[in-house]
Amino acid sequence: MPQETDNLILIKRSNVSGATPTLNSLKLGELGINTADGKLFTTTELNSVSSVKTFLNSDDYPYTLNHYYSSVNFKYGNNTVNQIFAGVLGGYNNDISGGGSTVINGEDNDIAGDFCFIGSGVNNKILASGDYSVILGGNNNLISHENTFTIGSNLSSHANNFTYVNNISAQGIMYGDGSGLTNLAAAVAPDTEVRALTANWESTYTTVQSNSATIWDNSLSNQYTHTNFLPLSGGTLIGTILGDLSATGSFYGDGSKLTGIVAGDTEATTLVRSNSGYWESAYSTVTSLSSNWQTTFQASSAYVSSNITGVTNSTAITNMMQITLAGYNALGVNVVPNTLYIIVG
Q1: Where are the domains of the chain?
Q2: Calpha distance 79→86 (Å, rounded)
Q3: How many C-beta atoms lie closer than 10 Å to residue 49's C-beta?
Q4: How many angstroms separate the CA atoms of 120 and 158, rounded?
Q5: Based on C-alpha coordinates, what's the Rg of the chain?
Q6: Which of 164, 171, 218, 282 is an S-S bond match for 155, by CB 3.0 to 4.6 Å?
Q7: Which pTM was predicted?
């Protein structure tokens, strides 16, 4: 009875690690095996060109295919993939627990959200709440909101559906309504395109384009015929203000340009009068605080000295008389000495 070994079919082989067959040692249709490395060889021929092909064993693959998760993991970087349709294609210490998510490269990049992507970088995280999000690169980025796109470093998401960047530079044109733009510098270079696409915006913020609806000119101290404005400082009011002007604070100035203030209108003039020394509510009287004035022109000894010096032959005034000019002229030589005549008409 023949022994069992007589039925063995053995192919060409070598037990030397690293050894590979040559075209002369392996004919078309033959197989060769390296029993030390676990590699299989065969010869192929295409267009009269022959070559030896190698089939690796699973230990030599750079990637691990997980049939249960249908996932791919880069073998040599201590990376982990434990969710379906996910993959780590390179890098070190990258971990994926979100379905359908991918890390291309980098170190310590983690994805817990579904259908997310990290291109590269270090210590970037997409949390489970950040589904459908992307980090292109950079470091120390954190996404915790859906539909988030991040380009840069040290960025954290604050709301869904936003793109986060450190800085933006464009050689072409940026489109949008610009309603959310802040901190635009006055310099021309950074925001030329914004101004060019913004209706009637000049290159500096102190001027207004000639097509602006208010028809201002570029000096701001003048105006066109269709515009009246109140200058905030250093100008002159031109035109007419229609309606009422109201202030909870105070108006300052000399009041020289105010018009239309009625003397009896206490509501309109109370503040002006109260701040003006000795101004009463009616202009026909003189306040009692005005120095030594009376409300009539009748003479009073309290305001006229009884000893007037410098008048010839007069040392005292003993009589005071009101008289018309015609009456005074009619006295002729009969003028009474030491008498003060007050001509009243």
Answers
A1: 4-59, 168-237, 246-295, 296-345
A2: 12
A3: 7
A4: 22
A5: 52
A6: 164
A7: 0.44
